[in-house]
Amino acid sequence: MARVLRRRRRRGAGAGAPAPDLRDEGGLQAAYDAHGPELYRFALRQLSDEVAAQDVVQEVFLRAWRAADRFDPELASLRVWLFAIARNVLVDELRRAARRPVPMAPSGNGRLPDRSTGRSIDEQVMQSWLVEEALQRIGPEHRAALVETYLRGRPYAEVAAEQGIPVGTLRSRLFYGLKALRVVMDEMGVRE
């Protein structure tokens, strides 16, 4: 019985029910009601910005509506297809955010950018570019571990579960990733 339930969960909720027609307003609304909140939480975890997460969900359903004829329930469930679209939208959003200049006006919380480091904005931007370049030069497993835990501040257990590895392996990747990052930054001539 447990195997049957797991199979049903893998195929998505209501695996026996036909997927809603995304070209129809009612079908799109049904898909949004079923998967919108989960997509929002997924986007919010990645972006840490409520407004941007809402925009991502809106873009996911807009793209799903435009590409409704390409959805094949034989290949994947509607949930899987929507999350694949969400992943692409998030990649686009993260790339767009990386190209945005550092804000010179007060941020959403009414404060100016952090100047407690004693460095100018130019130095902060240069430092972030150097770190980004150094991260590109280390292995993908180490980079993913460092980005998710140190830069995004996510808990080790959550990141390990997402990557399908034990927490101890994640900690090992962090240790060796930091060592590799230090070596790369030394090679780049970054001192600090």
UniProtKB/TrEMBL annotation:
Residues 32-100, 134-182 form the RNA polymerase sigma-70 region domain. It comes from the Bacteria. One of its GO terms (molecular function) is DNA binding. It holds the Pfam family Sigma70_r4. Residues 1-26 are annotated as: Disordered. GO terms for biological process: DNA-templated transcription initiation. CDD domains: Sigma70_r4. Keywords: DNA-binding, Sigma factor, Transcription, Transcription regulation. Residues 1-12 have a biased composition (Basic residues). Belongs to the sigma-70 factor family. ECF subfamily. PANTHER family: RNA POLYMERASE ECF-TYPE SIGMA FACTO (PTHR43133), RNA POLYMERASE SIGMA FACTOR SIGZ (PTHR43133:SF62). This is Sigma-70 family RNA polymerase sigma factor. It comes from Nocardiopsis eucommiae.
